[in-house]
Design goal:
heterodimer; A: 884 residues; alpha+beta; 8-stranded mixed β-sheet; 7-stranded mixed β-sheet; 26 strands; 52% helix; 16% strand; B: 116 residues; Arc Repressor Mutant, subunit A; 5 helices; 61% helix; globular
């Protein structure tokens, strides 16, 4: 307590808020006069003053504060240079901070639950259509109940539904609004150790009977946003379509569900999702595992994998005897793995893990470029201040004192830059999040600044200070007074540092630009990728309807109704829209042909689909109303159908000859094959995603009993037609629920979300990096050549040819540029391998990717080096020498 | 740190300067630095000669800790001098320090004379 008081008082003393020197001296003089022993006392006054001054303040802090004041004056004296340094460094630090906030919010931040490090979620690894490892993490309810029995009391298995948008009518409202609903099994809140903010949370007793627990818990944010935190909301009804749930409580603040990027609004007991409960293969939730005390995750994983192996044997037994080896290998490659879920588990995490990593890397390198730039500036200034440093050394400053002086200056720069950067990041991180969102899939992230962000910011300042401050500080402090005070003394060791900085600058820049070019080219290729249909003016509606035998007839009536609406050119039905990542694959055989290695794609379409999508009919005819698709009947007997196929199908199955009138068989259920007559041939078109290669595809007649997609080609703006279509659907099928209305163009846009974002951001980083390093390179080269003006003058005086001299002097500098560029390219090629699956039809050896960055840097280097070199040549040698 | 060195040089037992100054101010009431030094020289029969470099930083430390309060005034000889007075916290600290000293002195007494 006393010590603290003393320290505070001395702190005030340091800040000159305590007794002035004159006051101290007056007291000592008064003592000396009373003692009256003349000269000895007066001497003691002077000597005691030092002890008093030290006592009054905090000497170490005092020295530091005078360093800060001095450094501040230096920065202000060179305010243009300092401003430029702070701005460029600030931009880079801001980008780094924004990248950290995103990475932290999406991937790193632990969920606010009990023991987040002990939870895991189950995934199944498999080999995808492009022969790459991928995993799916959605599970069906029958598997869940089997696993619960299998695992017993070794672990808690949690059913964690995906946080998916759905329409709800909240209490007191008449219009539905969109919320993210998440189904949880009854044990989730308990295992997570969460306490309600209001009311209660549901437990195991609230999740026993299918459809028997009409209750819901609100997320804290939604409660605040929509109900203003009114506790009276407990006990009131939420209406989901025909289902009415009673609000029983509010989840604690900070808990936004388990999916970073898809914050949940409403939690509902899992058994209220009645429809998929008895459907094997209908995946709708993630399976989370929390082992009990003393049980390891690995032992639970082994149990699940053993069950998976049994599944595999069943699947293999169901394969036809001549099944292609790829399919057998694909089934055998499946493996269950428990992945850590402490930071949540979500689709945005999976989709953006790698892009975020790439962006963070690029931004990190950009920060290095900015650091090198500032190091250059500091270095040049240190050179200019050699005499000042020498003077300090000669009056007794030790080296550490000089290093500290320089580092304080660097730290001031870094703090200034951090302020600029924080402002930039404040704006940039939410902006990037908004770029990721689409109308029906809004990305909602908790970006709030907490101690993690603060710690990162402080760490960043420290790192940056050390990165750009240390070398110049050590260099500046290594002066020997005699050398520095000598006019025009040689600058020892300077060239090596200069060359290193030039090389590093070039390497970093070439690396960033190279990667950015790859990503931008990928986006360009995907955006101009031929689709095989015309997406303009097509409006798409995905509609969920309860399945019924009258479904096909009712849908046909809807199609007929929409066709007569004004502004409609044509309308068709499909199982789902193109480019929605849905796929229906099946084994298809042509009589007397060897089996194909991969399954073919199928799509349910109604008559008029090809006309609506404007896919060219090359031969044969369109499907007709009343035609059937390959299927099974109620007794599991195959039912034959017809199909229109694409060109790839004709090529793969019939060697390119006309498939019209040919017959193929489709495996409609394991080991049950139905015959299909081919009636038409259409051009190739993309199906599930833009990246998938175009596969042999059968378009078969749609017999939609429940869910369907309505495709409308409009005469005018498709978006303007959306509300009319919504009304018409509401009248024609009041039992249905519209999941999505969007233009086909928007669906394509959405496919390119990740690529567009990567292209935009990496392009931005690359332009900034190029600008920074061109400026930096210009500065260093210019400075280096100016330092060389004297040797040039000497050589010219001795009779050397001008061109020869310039080449010799600038040669080593340009060599440093070349070496740096080589290293940067090497790094880029290596890194390119890591991001290969983010690329599309761009190879890392693409020549166009190499040319642009090299050209820009070359021009910057030439502009920087040549003018001073030429000036040196034109100067009269005698004058250069006289200047010494 | 510099302060402790000067104390040691002056031959003042570590930590006793504070106690001596506080006790002096308690006995004599508010006093200026010279008077405190004179008093200490007097009671020690000249054995304790505090120099300025020890005394004044010591007073400053006591002031920084809030145990004494300094203010300018005039001496009997009509000279300007800075007078130090005990604060309430200073009185409390003095009592505590005195008890601690007594206890320590008792222990030292027993130890050195070997009575027990």
């Amino acid at each position: 307590m006393l010590a603290l008081r003393e320290w505070l008082d001395r702190l005030l003393g340091t800040l000159r808020l305590r007794r002035a020197d004159a006051d101290l001296e007056a007291e000592l003089r008064s003592h000396a006069e009373q003692a009256g022993d003349g000269y000895a006392s007066r001497l003691a006054v002077t000597q005691s003053m030092d002890a008093m001054r030290d006592r009054r303040g905090l000497p170490s802090l005092h020295a530091l504060s005078s360093d800060v004041v001095f450094a501040w004056r230096q920065l202000v004296a060179h305010r243009i240079v300092s401003g430029a340094a702070i701005l460029s460094l600030g931009l880079a630090m801001g980008a780094t901070t924004a990248a950290f906030r995103l990475v932290d919010a999406v991937l790193l931040r632990p969920l606010p639950i009990a023991a987040p490090e002990r939870v895991a979620f189950a995934v199944t690894w498999f080999v995808d259509a492009r022969q790459r490892f991928d995993y799916y993490d959605s599970w069906d309810y029958p598997t869940y109940t089997r696993y619960v029995a299998l695992v017993g009391d070794r672990a808690d298995l949690l059913l964690v539904g995906s946080s998916s948008p759905t329409e709800v009518v909240p209490p007191g409202a008449s219009q539905p609004e969109r919320v993210n609903r998440q189904f949880y099994s009854g044990n989730v809140f308990g295992v997570f150790g969460l306490q309600p903010a209001v009311g209660r949370l549901f437990g195991p007793a609230d999740d026993r009977t299918p459809g028997g627990h009409p209750i819901a818990v609100l997320a804290f944010d939604y409660w605040q946003r929509r109900f203003g935190g009114d506790p009276q909301v407990v006990g009131r009804p939420l209406r989901f379509g025909g289902q009415i749930l009673e609000v029983i409580g509010v989840a604690p603040e900070g808990f936004t569900g388990t999916e970073p990027g898809h914050a949940a609004d409403v939690f509902v007991p899992a058994l209220m999702n009645v429809e998929p409960l008895d459907k094997p293969g209908w995946g709708w939730f993630r399976l989370w595992v929390r082992p009990r005390d003393g049980v390891t995750l690995a032992s639970v994983e082994r149990l699940l994998q053993a069950d998976q192996l049994r599944d595999q044997r069943e699947a293999l037994a169901l394969l036809p005897p001549d099944a292609p080896p790829q399919r057998i290998a694909a089934i055998k490659s499946r493996r269950v793995e428990l992945q850590p879920a402490g930071s949540g588990a979500s689709a945005p995490q999976k989709d953006f893990r790698r892009p975020l990593f790439v962006l963070a890397s690029l931004v990190g390198v950009m920060l290095l470029i900015a650091c090198v730039n500032v190091a250059n500036l500091q270095n040049a200034q240190a050179l200019a201040r050699r005499r000042e440093m020498a003077l300090r050394v000669s009056i007794g400053a030790d080296r550490w004192r000089l290093v500290r002086l320089m580092l304080v200056e660097s730290a001031l720069l870094a703090v200034g830059a951090a302020a600029v950067g924080t402002a930039f990041a404040w704006w940039a991180a939410p902006f990037i999040v908004s770029q990721l969102s689409t109308a029906d899939d809004p990305i909602r992230l908790a970006l709030g600044l907490d101690w993690r962000g603060l710690a990162f910011g402080l760490g960043l300042i420290a790192c940056v200070t050390v990165l750009f401050g240390t070398l110049p500080a050590l260099r500046a402090s290594a002066v020997t007074p005699i050398d520095a005070l000598k006019s025009g003394g040689r600058v020892t060791g300077h060239r090596r540092l200069t060359h290193g900085l030039i090389g590093a600058q070039t390497a970093f820049c070439v690396f960033v630009v190279f990667i950015a070019v790859l990503l931008v080219a990928t986006f360009a290729r995907l955006a101009t990728h031929p689709l095989g249909f015309r997406p303009e003016r097509v409006l798409v509606a995905e509609v969920d309807a309860p399945p019924s035998p009258q479904g096909p007839a009712r849908w046909a009536a809807v199609v007929d109704g929409v066709r007569t609406m004004p502004g409609v050119e044509s309308v068709a039905l499909a199982g789902w829209p193109l480019l929605r990542s849905n796929r229906w694959r099946a084994d298809v055989r042509a009589e007397g042909q060897p089996p194909q290695p991969d399954p073919a794609y199928l799509l349910n379409v109604s008559p008029g689909f090809f006309a609506t999508m404007q896919m060219p009919l090359l031969a044969g005819r369109d499907l007709r109303a009343g035609e059937g698709r390959p299927d099974i009947d109620a007794q599991s007997r195959p039912r034959d159908g017809v199909a229109v196929v694409n060109e790839s199908f004709a090529k793969a199955y019939f060697g390119g000859r006309s498939p019209i009138g040919e017959r193929v068989s489709v495996e409609v259920r394991p080991r049950i094959r139905a015959s299909v007559d081919i009636v038409g041939l259409v051009g190739d078109a993309v199906y599930a995603t833009l990246r998938d290669p175009i596969r042999p595809t059968l378009y078969v007649p749609a017999r939609q009993t429940g869910t369907a997609a309505l495709l409308v080609r409009t005469a005018g703006d498709p978006e303007a037609f959306a509300s009319a279509l919504r009304r018409a659907l509401g009248q024609a099928r009041p039992d249905a629920h519209i999941r999505l209305i969007a233009t086909q163009t928007e669906l394509i846009h959405r496919q390119l979300l990740r690529e567009r974002l990567l292209a935009k951001l990496s392009g931005f980083v690359a332009v900034v990096a190029l600008l920074l390093s061109a400026i930096g390179l210009y500065g260093v080269l210019h400075h280096a050549v100016i330092l060389q003006q004297r040797p040039i003058g000497i050589r010219l005086a001795l009779g050397a040819g001008a061109g020869h001299v310039v080449r010799q002097v600038t040669g080593s500098l340009l060599a440093a540029v070349a070496v740096g560029a080589g290293i940067g390219l090497g790094g880029g090629l290596l890194f390119g391998r890591i991001l290969e699956d983010l690329l599309f039809r761009v190879s890392t050896t693409d020549a166009t990717a190499l040319g642009a960055p090299l050209a820009v840097l070359g021009v910057a280097a030439a502009l920087a080096a040549l003018p001073p070199a030429l000036r040196a040549v034109r100067i009269d040698p005698a004058r250069t020498l006289r200047a010494e | 740190m510099a302060n402790e060195e000067t104390q040691a040089k002056a031959g003042v037992l570590q930590g006793t300067l504070d106690l001596m100054v506080l006790q002096t101010l308690d006995t004599l009431g508010p006093q200026h630095g010279y008077a405190i030094a004179a008093r200490l020289a007097q009671v020690s029969s000249g054995a304790l000669q505090l120099n300025m470099g020890t005394l004044y930083p010591g007073l400053m430390r006591l002031e920084q800790r809030g145990l004494v309060k300094g203010s300018w005034g005039t001496t009997d000889a009509n000279r300007k001098a800075r007078f130090y007075a005990l604060t309430a916290a200073g009185k409390k600290a003095l009592a505590k320090e005195r008890d601690a000293w007594d206890r320590m002195a008792g222990i030292m007494d027993v130890l050195l004379r070997g009575d027990a």
